[in-house]
Amino acid sequence: MLILGIETTCDETSAAVVQDGREVLSNVVSSQVDLHAKFGGVVPEVAARAHLESINAIIQEALDVAGVRNPREEIGAIAVANCPGLIGCLLVGTATAKGLAFGWGKPLVGVNHVQAHLYSVLLEERSEVGIQKSEALFPAVGLVMSGGHSSLYQVQAFDRLQRIGQTQDDAVGEAFDKVAAILQLGYPGGPLIDKLAMRGDPLAIKFPLSHLEKDSLNFSFSGLKTAVLYHVNGKKGRERDASSLSEQQKADVAASFQHTAAQMLTVKLRRAAARFETRSLIIGGGVSANTAIRKAVQELGRELGLPVFIPPMRYCTDNGAMIAGIAYPLLQSGKVSELSLDTIATV
Fold it and tell me: Cα–Cα distances in Å, from 183 out to 221, 237, 245, 293, 318?
C-alpha cells in the first residue's frame, strides 16, 4: 500500500509517499528557517501563509519523485499530522488532506506528529528495506525531543502509545534556541550550540539539574536556561552580555549546557526503563540529532543492556515520511478518521 503523508505542524512543509509503512519512495521537505531567522523564532502567521503557498507544489513533487502518475488509483490512503502544533499551520495540512481524501475517495488517517517522530526509526530507503525489524522494539520506552515537545512514551506498538512524562515548561529544543540567543549565536539554536560545544569543555560549568518531585517522569528546562542566562549576563540577567565572553568561554557554556541537558533527559529515560517492561529505547524529534544527546542515550542503552533506536538525521526533524509511515499500522488497526477530523494544537 502506498500512503501519502502530509506534515505542516510548524515550520516545515513536507509530503511523502511511503510503501507498506517502511519504504520511503519520496520525502520532500521545504524548510522555513530563512523566513523566521530574522525574528529569532517561528512566527505562526508567517508559517501558516508559507505552508499555504507551497503545499500543493510539495505534494505534487512527492508524487512525481515516487513515480506516482495516477494517485487516484495508486495511493491507498491520505495521512496528515492533525496534532499537536501551531493551529494555523495544522489547518493548512488537514484541509488539504481532507480535500484529497474526498476527491480521490481514499481513507483519511489523522496522526499525532509527536508519536510519529518515534516511528521514524523504522523508515528506510529502497536500498535498506528489511534491515530493521520492529519485532525487536516492543515494549519500548520512547523519548521525543523537539522545539515544542519533551515527551516520554510507553510504546506497546505504534498504534498503542501512552504518554508517561512531558515537559512542565520549556521543551528541550526551546531551551537550545534560548541559550543560543543568550550566547548571540543566531537561529535555529540546536545545530549552532552543537557545533560550538565541540570546542568546549562539558564539565567546565556545573549547571543545576532539575529532577522535579521524587520519581517524576516529567521534565523542566526553564531553570537550566535561567542558570545559563545568569552565568552569561550576570545575576540579574542584565549586567553584561555574551560579547564579554571569549570564544572559548562561549564554547564551554555551550558544552556544559548541552551536557546538563543530556543528563536531565537520560535520568528520566533510565527511570522510565526501570519502571516499565522495556526491550528497547527509542528516541526521535529534532533534538535527537544532537551529538551529545545521541551519545548519552547510546551509553545508557549499553549500560542497561538495551538496544537503542535513533532515526537517521534526515528523519529527525518534521517530515511527511514519518506521518505516512505511522499511518500504516493505524490503518491496519482500523483507526480511520472522518472528514470532520479536528486540528488540535495541544494534546
Answer: 17, 13, 9, 20, 26
280-284, strands of its sheet edge to edge: 160-166, 150-157, 140-145, 280-284, 308-309
pLDDT of residue 126: 56
- Print burial letters for 167-206: b (CB count within 10 Å at least 16), e (below 16): beebbbbbbbbbbbbbbebebbbbbbbbebbeebebeebe
Q: Please tell me what DSSP assigns to residue 122.
A: G
Q: 155 vs 130, 162, 176, 277, CA distance in Å?
A: 21, 7, 27, 10
Chain centroid to CA 339: 26
Q: Could you say which architecture CATH assigns to the domain 2-123+314-332?
A: 2-Layer Sandwich (3.30)
Q: Please report the DSSP string for 26-66 in residue order.
A: EEEEEE-HHHHHTTTS--HHHHHHHHHHHHHHHHHHHHHHH
Location of C-alpha cell 552543537 = 194
Closest CA to 60 of 22, 13, 98: 13
In CATH, what number does 135-310 get? 3.30.420.40
Instruction: Give the closest residue to 87 by CA, choosing from 345, 340, 341, 318.
Output: 345
Q: pTM (2 decimals)?
A: 0.93
Domain residues of the chain, as ranges? 2-123+314-332, 135-310
User: What gap in Å lies between CA 106 and CA 70, rounded to an integer?
Assistant: 13
Q: Rounded CA gap, 133 and 259, in Å?
A: 31
- Angle between helical axes of 172-182 and 189-197 (0-180°, round to 10): 70
Please give the Cα distance from 124 to 142 (Å, whole number). 19
In tens, the pLDDT along 291-338 reads 999 999 999 999 999 999 999 999 999 999 999 999 999 999 999 999
